[in-house]
Amino acid sequence: MIITVTMNPAIDKTVEVDHFCPGKLNRIGYPVTDAGGKGINVSKALKKLGETSIATGFLGKAGSDIILDVLSAEQIQTDFISCEGITRTNFKLMELDGTLTELNEPGMTVAREKVEELLEKIEQYATKDVWFVLSGSIPEGVDVDIYARIITKVHQKGAKVFVDADGRALIEAIKAVPDMIKPNEAELAEYFGIRRELSQEEILQLTKRLSDIGIETVVVSQGSRGAVFADAGEEKLVYQNALAVEVHSTVGAGDAMAAALVYAKEKKLPMQKMVQLAMAVSAGAVVTAGTNPPDRETIEAILQKFYG
Ligand SMILES: Nc1ncnc2c1ncn2[C@@H]1O[C@H](COP(=O)(O)OP(=O)(O)O)[C@@H](O)[C@H]1O
Ligand SMILES: O=P(O)(O)OC[C@H]1O[C@](O)(COP(=O)(O)O)[C@@H](O)[C@@H]1O
């Protein structure tokens, strides 16, 4: 069983523009509106892979219907805690050359008792057959070490944890040694306090350093440059080029990759299959408009084309 936890869901509005001109009037077409937030995207991508999950976390009362309607239409089980406030809207501008500009709102403020409610809920779900997906930013009112607290609690019950976060939340989560993480290049650099672009050699070295902490699977995604995979069962790091596909929207590509990774772990697939699935599902998300994950046919077609 996979439980996705989204502390800060979002209604994503993605718009494709030829070229975005900062400081100028930019007229846009109709945006694609999606139910987003990292864990929610993972649940949606898992569904396309034929895997069920339960989506939990916090939802701001205003705007929650948009997210709940989408998840219900996709037959994804939900168990959110309703909070006062507005579910945020995040704006994404996709340019023809593949540049993505994101404007993410901070989200609602969560009351202390709601945090305790969520922790209790999560503890009840935790058994040795469960993978938790802790993904995305932490809203106001929630301590930044919440992911670390959850990891420690559910590990005691034998559950496994995947974390996709940035900044302080990632630093704290890593202290509790999750089972799998997927930082992107920028998050990797930030974690190690490096304020410049990393060379490929450095990315490999830093991936290895994270793996040496004891995190079973470390994947560093590098956008159009591909990804590096480190798995405790394997001696070598694996680097994969991104698959050459037509780019429509890179929003949600990281979450699609996260879904493929957790799916592969849950199904105990060998590393090579995990790598191929992660590359194909994330490439599929890039081909698909807006935040949405690729459908099954798109994934199968990409797997067939690139891996035979
Ligand atoms: N332009 C692209 N072409 C092909 N694949 C891509 C492209 N951008 C992203 N991907 C795929 O999606 C994965 C995740 O993208 P990335 O941007 O690194 O994640 P995040 O959204 O978490 O920052 C990449 O490792 C790659 O497999
Ligand atoms: O919680 P955060 O870090 O603000 O991220 C939320 C945003 O990330 C997304 O989940 C997309 O993430 P990726 O592009 O990394 O897959 C959007 O749906 C959402 O707007």
TrEMBL record:
UniProt keyword terms in alphabetical order: ATP-binding, Kinase, Lactose metabolism, Nucleotide-binding, Transferase
GO biological-process terms attached to the record: carbohydrate catabolic process; lactose metabolic process; small molecule metabolic process
Example GO molecular function: tagatose-6-phosphate kinase activity
InterPro entries: 1-PFruKinase, Carboh/pur_kinase_PfkB_CS, PfkB_dom, Ribo/fructo_kinase, Ribokinase-like, Tagatose/fructose_Pkinase
Annotated Carbohydrate kinase PfkB domain residues: 6-294
A GO term from the CC aspect: cytosol
Reactions that this protein is recorded to catalyse: D-tagatofuranose 6-phosphate + ATP = D-tagatofuranose 1,6-bisphosphate + ADP + H(+); beta-D-fructose 1-phosphate + ATP = beta-D-fructose 1,6-bisphosphate + ADP + H(+)
Enzyme Commission (EC) number: 2.7.1.144
Pathway this chain belongs to: Carbohydrate metabolism; D-tagatose 6-phosphate degradation; D-glyceraldehyde 3-phosphate and glycerone phosphate from D-tagatose 6-phosphate: step 1/2
Pfam families associated with the record: PfkB (PF00294)
Family to which the UniProt record says this protein belongs: Belongs to the carbohydrate kinase pfkB family. Belongs to the carbohydrate kinase PfkB family. LacC subfamily.
PANTHER family: 1-PHOSPHOFRUCTOKINASE-RELATED, ATP-DEPENDENT 6-PHOSPHOFRUCTOKINASE ISOZYME 2
Task of the protein: Catalyzes the ATP-dependent phosphorylation of fructose-l-phosphate to fructose-l,6-bisphosphate.
Protein name according to UniProt: Tagatose-6-phosphate kinase
Origin organism lineage: Bacteria, Bacillati, Bacillota, Clostridia, Lachnospirales
Primary gene name: pfkB
